[in-house]
Amino acid sequence: MNIEIVNPDKTVFEGEAKAVLLPGIDGFFEILENHAPLISVLKKGKIKVVDMNNKESFYEVNGGVVENLKNKVLILVD
In b/e form, how buried is each residue of 25-41, taking b as 16+ CB within 10 angstroms? Predict the structure, then answer.
């Protein structure tokens, strides 16, 4: 699936990944390939992206919004 993490200044991450773990306002949740469509609010925390080679990357955020639709995950963060 394609992941894009964007803040007001730039694109922080863009690429293919196996999974993304997000800090939702009600707790952490994970999006995997073929996940059901969703829109959710994020709180302050770390986003974990697992790429196709199982390499983990972490991104600190102060909140934001995530949209998942047809294996395209768009994450807008502060």
Answer: eeeeeebeeebeeeebe
